[in-house]
C-alpha cells in the first residue's frame, strides 16, 4: 500500500441551470478512485458553488495509481427524484507519480458530459504521497517517464538507447455488451471512456515494467493506439523506444534547450555537420561531466549490455532470417581485427552490431536523432497484412493479436536485413478496420546506427571521445548505401556521393524519419502527397479479405509511382517522413501517402519526366505529347525556382544532366531502374494460412519505367493529370509533414495548431476508379487550399507536421482529418541574416580550408587500403567505413590543429545561441516547476499546442508528463447543435479545451508532440443523432521564452528521487 | 457528391474581423461570401468561392458558439472553450455591443419590451439595417438594461464592469438605459434633427447632475451606505419638487422685470440679436421655468426634450441667434438670477440651469 492519493474539491463555476423553477443548481461532487467514493456537501442554489471540501484521502497500491484515473462527478441534488449528473472529469494522476514531473495538479477543469459537452468548470487539487522506494514493486512502474516526442526530449540527454518496447491489452467493448441494450447512451459512453482510460493506464504500466527490466527509465516516441474492433472488442496497443535519459542539469546552459531548428543556424548547405548540431549530443560534453572517469570507455571489457537487458526472453521466436546475415557481419569485421590501430574500436562495433542483431526487434520509434547516431539509411521498409477479426475470447491472453504483430515485425526486420541494415528507425504501426476485416501495417526506415548510443556508459564516453571517436561523420554519411554494391538487394542506380565523392549513394532516397539536422539540402522542401481510391465489391468474411489482399499490392505500387513522379516534378531527390495510410471501406479502399520532398545535395540531380506517345506516329497525337511534355518541363522549372533549388553547378549542369538522364532512360527501358526501397507486402488471407500463400510484391520488377509516362495508357493520363493538378501553395506558404521545413530557420514565436475535418458524401452514381480518384484528390487539394486561405494572416509561414488521416466511415462517405501547425517565420531579415551567414560561412570555410588537405590525405590512405582489402571481402562498405575510422584516428593523433580549429568554429556557432548563464545559476532550474498552480487566478493560462517537439523562440525547461485522453461525444439533437459540422466543431474545441485545462493544472504552458490519433465520426441524420470518438496525446511541458533570463517566478523544489538509477 | 461536414478548429480561435463585422451586420453566409469575394486582397490568394464559403461558414459557426459568451462578457475572460488572446476578446465584445446610431435613434426612449421588438422589422426597413442586426442591438440594450437595473452604484461604472466595455461605449449604454428608464420622447418630428450623440450628451448631463447619485460631491458615499437603489437611473424626486419653487421667477412680476433688466444690461452691445433677445426675454424665461416646474409629472419628464426645443430652441432659431449668442444669453440669464435679492433658490437654480445650459448648447444646431 505504497501511496496516498489526496483530492480536494475547491469550487465550481458556470454550472448549468439544473432546476428550471429557480434557475439554479444544488450541486455536490462525488470523488471516486478505484472502489472508494467520497462526497462533498450539497452547495444549494448556486451556479458558482464554493465547496472548499476537506482533503479526500485514498490509500491505494501504486499499481492502481498507474492504472486508474481519478473520477470526479458533479451532480445536482434532488430531494424527490434521483440526482442528475451534470458531468465528469477524469484526471490521469500518472504525472504525479514521477518525481521529475508535476508535484500537484491544481486548476479549473471543464466538467464534461458525453451528451451535453462541457457544462461549467470545477476547481480541483490533487496530490500524491508515495511512501517508499518505487523500485521494490514489480507490478508497478512508477517513475518511468513517457514521451510522445519522437526525438530525445530537449532537456534530457540520452545516456543509452535500449530499444523497442511494445505491449497490447484487449477487452470487450462495453458498447457491444448485452447490457448496452438497457442502459442509456450516457452510461454506455462513460463505461467506454473509463475502460479505455483504465486500459491505457495498464498498458503504460506494463510497458514501464519492460523498460525497468531493460534498465531504462523512460520511453521516448511512445505511440499508443486504439483498435475498435466492434464485436470482437477493443485493443489498446503501444510501441515506444526505451531509453535511459539523464536530465541535463549542471551543464544545462540555455544552449542545451534550444532546438537546433530554432537556432538561427547556418544554412545547412554551408557547414552542415558542424553548427546545426543538437547540443545535447554534442561531442564536447558539458564541463560538468568532466570528472567522470573516461575509463569506462573500454567497453570491450564489459559484456554488451543488450544481452543483459533484453526484455523477455523471446529469443526463440526470432526468425531464421536473422542467421543468414549475421555471420557475414562477423566475417567483415573479423577480417579487420588483424589490422593495426583501433582494434578496440572494431571489436566494439562488432559486438554492438551483433548485439543489435540479437535483439528481437531492433526498432526505434524515433524519427530525429543526435548527429552521428544514424550512420546509413537504406530506405523504407513496410509490411501489411489483412486479417479477419474474431472475438477475443480471453482478454488476459491477447495472444492472437500479439502473434499478428509479431509476424509483421519479423517481416519488417527481414526486409531491413535485406537492405543490409541492422535496425529500423522511424518505426510505426497502424491499423484500418472495416467490419470484420482489419489491415495491420507497419513501416519504418532501414538503417545502420552508430553503436555508441546503445552501449552502457556511453554517457561517459562523451568525455573520452576526443581521443577515441572519429570526428563527426560527414554530413552526407546517412545517404550512403548500407547494402553491398555488388550484391544489391534490388536494382538501383548508384553514383558516387555528390558531396564527399567517396561512397556510393542511390539516386532517390525514401525514409520515414525527419531530415537529419546535419543533412545538406538545396532549397526548401515541400509536402508531397499521393492519393488513390480503388473500388471494391462489397463482400463478407474471407472473400472480402481476399479481395482486399489482392488490391493492396496494386495500390502500393501506384502510390509509389505517384510519389516518384511528383518528386521528380519538383526536381527533388529524397522523401522524408513518408507515411502511407490505406483505409478500408465497404466498397472502396483509400490510399494516402504523405511525405516531405527535399533536394539532398549528396544525391544526384533527378532526371526529367518523359512523355512517350503511341508508337503509331499520329501527328496530332505527337503534338499532344509534345505539349504535355512542355507543360511538365515548365512545371519542373517553375518548381525549381519556387523551392530555390540550386544545386552546386559543379555537379549539376542542368542541360547535361537532363541529357544524360534521358539517355539513361532509353538505355534502361528494358531494365527496371526504379531505385526504390525494398517494399514488400505479405498478405495473409486469414491467420490460418501461412507462408505458402504468400504473394510477394517487389515494386521494382515492373516493366514500366517510372519516369516514362505513356500517354495512351488511361492510367498514365490519370497520373499526368494528378501530377499537373496539384496546385503549389500560394506565395508565402510552405508545407511539410516533418518536424521542420528544410531551408527555413528564422521562426518567430507565432504559431497556430489546428485540426480540420472534412467528410464528403459521394453521390450514388456509378463511380469509376478514375472519377473517384479525382474526387479524392480534389478533396485533399481543396482542404489544403482552405488551410492556406485561413492562415493567410500568418504569411510568411510554413505548415509543419501536416498530418492527414483518411477514413471511410460509411458506404458513401470519405473522411479526411488534418492536424498541423502553422508557424510564421521572418522573411529574411536581409541585413542581419546576411551578416550571420557571412560569419558562419567564414567559420565554415576556414574549417574547410584547414581540413581539406588532411581529409584528402586521410582519404587517399583509406582508399588505398580499401583497394587492397576490397578483394578479400564482399562487404566492402563496412570495410571502407572501418578503415576510414582508423584513418581518422591516425590523423587525430598526428595533426592537432584541425581539431582545434574545428572546436573553435563550433564555439563561434554555439555562442550564437547560448546565453552565458553561469553554471551555478542554471542549476537552480533543475526540477523546478512554475507554480501556476494557484488555480484561483482569474485569467486563464494560455496553453500552446503543437505537433512538433519544440516551440520556436523558447526553451523547454520541464516535461510534466504525457497527456493521453479519450473522449466520446454523442448527441440526439444534431440539428439543434448546428448539424454535423456544428457538432464536431464544438467537440473538437472541447477536446482542445480539456487538454489545455489538464496541462495548465499540471503547471504547464504548452503541449508538444500533440497528435489526434483517432477521430471516429458516425452520424444518423434521419434519427437526428451523431457520435464521435477522439483520442489525443502529447507531452505537457513548461517553456520559457528565449529572452527570459530566468525560469518562471516561483520554483517549487521537488526532491529528485532515485528513480532513474534502477538496479 | 457533397461536402457533408467541414470544420476547422484552431488552438487559438481564429476570427477574421471582416467576417465578424459581416456577421454582426446580419449578412447571411451567402451574402457574406459575395461581399468577401469582391473585397480587396482576395485575388492575392486565388481564393475560389468554395474556399471562401468554407471559411465563412466556419467563422459564422465560431461566432454563433461564442455568442452565448458574449451575452455575458465577464465569462469570456475565464471560459476555457475558446482560447482567445485578451485584446481579441476586447475587440469581440466591443464590436458585439457597438450599435448603429441610426438604429438607436429609432428606439431611444422607447420601452425595451416585446412590443418594441416586434416593430423592429419596420425599423429595419426604415434604416436599412438587417433585422438580425437590429435584433442583436435591441437585445443588447435590453440585456444591459436588465443587468444594471438591479445593481446599485454608478451606472456607467456598472455597465463597464459587467460588460467590459470601453468608457465611451459604457457611457452610451448608460444614456440608452437612462432614456429607456425615463421614457424620454425622442421620436417626434421636431426632434428628428438631433443625433444620438446629442441625446447621449444630455443624458450624461442629467445623470451627472439631476439624479440621486449626483447629490453631494461623493457619489461613493451612497454606494457605501447602500441607501439608494437605481441612484443613477431615476431623477432626484426631491430636486424635482424643489424646482417648483423656481416659478417665482415668472410669477412675480417684479422679479421677472428685474431679471430682464439685469440680463439686458449685461447683453447690450455684445450681440447683433440684442433686440430679439430683449423682446423675447419673458417668453423664453417662462418657457424654461415652466419646464422646470412641470418636471414632477412623469408625463412632462418624457416631454423634456421636446419642450426644450419648442419653448426655447425654436424661437431662438427663428430669430437667427448664433450659437455664440445663445451661450452669451444663457450665461447671463443664469448668472443674473444670483443678483436678484428676493430670489432664494440659488442652489436649485444652478443645478437646473447648469444642465439646461449644456443641453441647449449641444442641441442648438441644424
Automatic annotation (TrEMBL), chain B:
InterPro entries: FIBP. One of its GO terms (molecular function) is fibroblast growth factor binding. One of its GO terms (biological process) is platelet aggregation. It holds the Pfam family FIBP. GO terms for cellular component: nucleus. This is Fibroblast growth factor (acidic) intracellular binding protein a.
Amino acid at each position: 500500500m505504497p501511496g496516498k492519493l489526496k483530492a480536494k474539491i475547491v469550487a465550481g463555476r458556470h454550472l448549468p441551470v439544473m432546476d428550471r423553477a429557480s434557475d439554479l443548481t444544488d450541486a455536490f461532487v462525488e470523488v471516486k478512485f478505484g472502489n472508494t467514493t467520497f462526497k462533498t456537501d450539497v452547495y444549494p442554489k448556486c451556479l458558482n458553488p464554493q465547496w472548499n471540501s476537506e482533503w479526500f484521502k485514498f490509500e491505494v497500491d501504486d499499481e492502481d495509481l498507474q492504472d486508474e484515473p481519478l473520477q470526479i462527478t458533479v451532480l445536482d441534488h434532488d430531494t424527490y427524484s434521483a440526482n442528475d449528473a451534470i458531468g465528469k472529469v477524469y484526471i490521469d494522476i500518472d504525472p504525479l507519480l514521477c518525481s521529475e514531473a508535476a508535484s500537484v495538479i491544481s486548476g479549473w477543469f471543464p466538467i464534461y458530459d458525453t451528451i451535453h459537452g462541457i457544462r461549467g468548470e470545477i476547481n480541483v487539487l490533487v496530490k500524491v504521497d508515495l511512501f517508499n522506494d518505487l523500485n521494490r514493486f514489480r507490478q508497478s512502474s512508477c517513475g518511468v517517464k513517457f514521451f510522445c516526442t519522437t526525438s530525445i526530449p530537449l532537456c534530457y540527454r540520452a545516456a543509452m538507447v535500449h530499444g523497442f518496447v511494445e505491449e497490447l491489452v484487449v477487452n470487450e467493448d462495453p458498447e457491444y455488451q448485452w447490457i448496452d441494450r438497457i442502459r442509456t447512451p450516457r452510461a454506455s459512453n462513460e463505461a467506454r471512456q473509463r475502460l479505455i482510460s483504465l486500459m491505457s493506464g495498464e498498458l503504460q504500466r506494463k510497458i514501464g515494467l519492460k523498460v525497468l527490466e531493460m534498465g531504462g527509465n523512460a520511453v521516448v516516441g511512445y505511440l499508443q493506439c486504439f483498435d475498435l474492433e466492434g464485436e470482437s472488442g477493443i485493443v489498446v496497443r503501444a510501441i515506444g523506444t526505451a531509453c535511459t535519459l539523464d536530465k541535463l542539469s549542471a551543464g544545462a546552459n540555455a544552449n542545451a534547450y534550444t532546438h537546433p531548428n530554432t537556432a538561427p543556424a547556418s544554412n545547412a548547405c554551408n557547414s552542415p555537420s558542424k553548427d546545426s548540431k543538437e547540443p545535447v549530443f554534442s561531442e564536447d560534453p558539458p564541463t560538468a561531466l568532466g570528472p567522470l572517469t573516461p575509463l569506462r570507455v573500454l567497453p570491450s571489457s564489459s559484456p554488451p549490455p543488450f544481452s543483459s537487458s533484453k526484455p523477455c526472453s523471446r529469443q526463440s521466436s526470432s526468425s531464421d532470417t536473422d542467421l543468414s546475415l549475421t555471420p557475414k557481419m562477423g566475417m567483415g569485421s573479423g577480417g579487420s581485427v588483424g589490422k593495426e590501430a583501433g582494434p578496440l574500436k572494431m571489436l566494439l562495433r562488432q559486438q554492438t552490431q551483433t548485439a543489435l542483431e540479437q535483439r528481437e526487434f531492433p526498432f526505434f520509434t524515433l524519427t530525429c536523432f543526435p548527429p552521428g547516431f544514424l550512420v546509413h539509411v537504406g530506405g523504407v521498409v513496410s509490411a501489411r497484412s489483412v486479417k479477419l477479426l474474431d472475438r477475443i475470447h480471453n482478454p488476459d491472453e491477447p495472444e492472437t493479436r500479439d502473434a499478428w504483430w509479431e509476424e509483421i515485425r519479423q517481416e519488417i526486420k527481414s526486409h531491413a536485413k535485406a537492405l543490409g541494415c541492422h535496425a529500423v528507425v522511424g518505426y510505426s504501426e497502424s491499423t484500418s478496420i472495416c467490419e470484420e476485416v482489419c489491415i495491420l501495417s507497419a513501416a519504418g526506415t532501414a538503417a545502420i546506427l552508430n553503436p555508441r548510443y546503445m552501449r552502457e556508459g556511453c554517457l561517459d564516453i562523451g568525455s573520452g571521445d576526443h581521443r577515441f571517436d572519429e570526428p563527426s561523420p560527414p554530413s552526407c554519411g546517412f545517404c550512403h548505401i548500407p547494402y553491398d554494391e555488388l550484391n544489391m538487394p534490388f536494382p538501383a542506380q548508384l553514383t558516387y556521393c555528390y558531396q564527399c565523392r567517396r561512397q556510393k549513394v542511390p539516386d532517390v532516397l525514401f525514409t520515414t524519419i525527419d531530415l537529419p539536422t546535419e543533412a545538406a539540402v538545396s532549397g526548401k522542401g515541400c509536402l508531397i502527397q499521393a492519393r488513390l481510391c480503388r473500388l471494391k465489391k462489397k463482400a463478407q468474411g474471407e472473400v472480402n479479405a481476399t479481395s482486399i489482399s489482392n488490391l493492396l499490392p496494386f495500390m502500393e505500387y501506384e502510390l509509389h509511382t505517384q510519389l516518384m513522379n511528383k518528386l521528380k516534378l519538383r526536381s527533388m531527390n529524397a522523401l522524408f517522413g513518408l507515411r502511407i495510410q490505406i483505409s478500408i471501406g465497404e466498397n472502396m479502399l483509400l490510399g494516402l501517402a504523405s511525405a516531405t520532398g527535399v533536394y539532398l545535395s549528396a544525391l544526384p540531380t533527378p532526371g526529367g519526366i518523359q512523355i512517350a506517345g503511341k508508337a503509331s506516329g499520329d501527328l496530332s497525337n505527337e503534338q499532344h505529347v509534345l505539349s504535355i511534355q512542355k507543360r511538365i518541363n515548365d512545371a519542373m522549372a517553375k518548381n525549381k525556382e519556387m523551392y530555390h533549388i540550386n544545386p552546386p553547378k559543379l555537379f549539376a549542369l542542368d542541360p547535361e544532366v537532363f541529357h544524360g538522364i534521358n539517355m539513361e532512360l532509353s538505355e534502361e527501358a528494358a531494365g527496371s531502374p526504379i531505385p526504390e526501397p525494398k517494399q514488400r507486402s505479405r498478405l495473409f488471407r486469414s491467420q490460418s494460412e501461412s507462408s505458402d500463400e504468400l504473394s510477394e510484391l517487389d515494386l521494382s520488377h515492373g516493366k514500366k519505367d517510372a519516369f516514362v509516362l505513356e500517354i495512351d495508357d488511361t492510367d498514365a493520363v490519370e497520373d499526368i493529370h494528378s501530377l499537373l493538378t496539384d496546385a503549389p501553395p500560394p506565395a508565402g506558404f510552405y508545407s511539410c509533414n516533418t518536424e521542420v521545413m528544410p531551408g527555413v530557420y528564422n521562426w518567430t514565436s507565432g504559431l497556430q495548431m489546428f485540426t480540420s475535418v472534412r467528410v464528403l458524401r459521394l453521390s450514388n452514381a456509378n463511380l469509376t476508379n478514375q472519377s473517384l480518384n479525382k474526387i479524392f484528390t480534389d478533396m485533399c487539394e481543396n482542404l489544403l487550399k482552405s488551410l492556406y486561405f485561413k492562415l493567410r494572416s500568418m504569411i510568411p509561414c510554413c505548415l509543419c507536421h501536416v498530418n492527414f488521416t483518411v477514413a471511410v466511415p460509411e458506404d458513401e462517405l470519405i473522411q479526411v482529418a488534418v492536424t498541423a501547425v502553422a508557424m510564421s517565420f521572418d522573411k529574411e531579415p536581409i541585413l542581419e541574416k546576411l551578416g550571420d551567414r557571412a560569419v558562419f560561412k567564414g567559420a565554415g570555410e576556414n574549417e574547410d580550408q584547414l581540413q581539406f588537405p588532411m581529409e584528402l590525405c586521410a582519404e587517399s590512405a583509406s582508399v588505398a587500403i580499401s583497394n587492397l582489402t576490397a578483394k578479400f571481402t564482399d562487404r566492402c562498405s563496412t570495410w571502407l567505413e572501418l578503415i576510414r575510422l582508423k584513418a581518422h584516428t591516425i590523423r587525430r593523433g598526428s595533426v592537432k590543429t584541425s581539431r582545434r580549429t574545428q572546436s573553435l568554429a563550433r564555439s563561434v556557432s554555439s555562442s550564437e545561441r547560448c546565453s552565458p548563464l553561469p553554471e551555478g545559476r542554471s542549476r537552480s532550474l533543475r526540477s523546478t516547476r512554475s507554480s501556476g498552480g494557484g488555480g484561483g487566478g482569474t485569467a486563464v493560462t494560455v496553453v500552446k499546442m503543437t505537433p512538433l517537439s519544440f516551440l520556436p523562440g523558447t526553451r523547454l525547461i520541464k516535461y510534466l508528463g504525457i497527456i493521453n485522453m479519450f473522449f466520446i461525444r454523442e448527441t440526439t439533437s444534431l440539428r439543434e447543435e448546428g448539424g454535423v459540422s456544428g457538432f464536431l466543431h464544438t467537440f473538437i474545441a472541447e477536446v482542445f479545451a480539456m487538454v489545455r485545462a489538464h496541462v495548465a493544472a499540471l503547471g504547464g504552458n504548452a503541449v508538444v508532440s500533440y497528435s489526434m490519433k483517432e477521430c471516429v465520426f458516425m452520424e444518423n441524420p434521419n434519427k437526428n443523432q451523431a457520435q464521435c470518438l477522439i483520442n489525443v496525446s502529447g507531452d505537457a511541458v513548461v517553456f520559457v521564452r528565449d529572452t527570459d533570463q530566468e525560469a518562471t517566478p516561483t520554483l517549487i523544489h521537488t526532491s529528485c528521487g532515485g528513480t532513474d538509477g534502477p538496479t | 457528391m457533397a461536402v457533408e461536414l467541414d470544420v476547422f478548429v484552431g488552438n487559438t480561435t481564429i476570427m477574421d474581423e471582416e467576417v465578424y463585422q459581416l456577421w454582426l451586420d446580419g449578412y447571411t453566409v451567402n451574402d457574406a461570401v459575395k461581399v468577401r469575394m469582391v473585397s480587396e486582397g482576395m485575388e492575392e490568394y486565388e481564393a475560389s468561392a468554395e474556399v471562401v464559403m468554407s471559411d465563412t461558414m466556419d467563422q459564422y459557426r465560431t461566432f454563433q458558439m461564442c455568442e452565448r459568451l458574449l451575452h455575458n462578457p465577464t465569462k469570456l475572460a475565464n471560459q476555457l472553450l475558446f482560447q482567445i488572446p485578451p485584446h481579441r476578446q476586447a475587440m469581440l465584445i466591443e464590436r458585439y455591443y457597438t450599435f448603429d446610431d441610426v438604429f438607436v435613434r429609432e428606439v431611444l426612449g422607447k420601452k425595451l419590451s416585446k412590443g418594441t421588438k416586434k416593430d423592429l422589422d419596420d425599423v429595419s426597413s426604415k434604416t436599412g439595417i438587417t433585422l438580425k442586426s437590429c435584433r442583436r442591438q435591441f437585445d443588447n440594450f435590453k440585456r444591459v438594461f436588465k443587468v444594471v437595473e438591479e445593481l446599485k452604484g454608478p451606472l456607467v461604472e456598472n455597465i463597464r464592469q459587467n460588460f467590459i466595455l470601453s468608457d465611451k461605449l459604457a457611457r452610451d449604454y448608460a444614456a440608452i438605459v437612462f432614456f429607456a428608464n425615463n421614457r424620454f420622447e425622442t421620436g417626434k418630428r421636431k426632434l428628428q434633427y438631433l443625433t444620438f450623440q446629442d441625446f447621449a450628451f444630455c443624458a450624461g448631463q442629467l445623470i451627472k447632475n439631476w439624479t440621486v447619485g449626483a447629490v453631494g460631491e461623493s457619489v461613493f458615499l451612497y454606494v457605501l451606505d447602500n441607501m439608494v437603489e437605481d441612484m443613477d437611473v431615476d431623477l432626484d424626486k426631491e430636486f424635482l419638487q424643489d424646482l417648483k419653487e423656481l416659478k417665482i421667477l415668472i410669477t412675480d412680476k417684479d422679479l421677472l422685470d428685474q431679471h430682464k433688466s439685469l440680463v439686458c444690461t449685461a447683453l447690450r452691445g455684445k450681440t447683433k440679436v440684442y433686440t430679439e433677445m430683449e423682446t423675447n426675454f419673458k417668453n423664453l424665461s417662462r418657457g424654461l421655468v415652466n419646464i422646470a416646474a412641470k418636471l414632477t409629472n412623469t408625463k412632462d419628464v418624457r416631454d423634456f426634450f421636446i419642450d426644450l426645443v419648442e419653448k426655447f430652441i425654436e424661437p431662438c432659431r427663428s430669430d437667427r441667434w448664433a450659437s455664440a449668442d445663445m451661450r452669451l444669453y444663457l450665461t447671463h440669464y443664469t448668472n443674473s438670477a444670483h443678483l436678484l435679492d428676493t430670489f432664494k433658490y440659488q442652489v436649485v437654480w444652478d443645478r437646473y440651469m447648469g444642465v439646461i445650459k449644456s443641453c441647449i448648447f449641444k442641441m442648438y444646431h441644424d
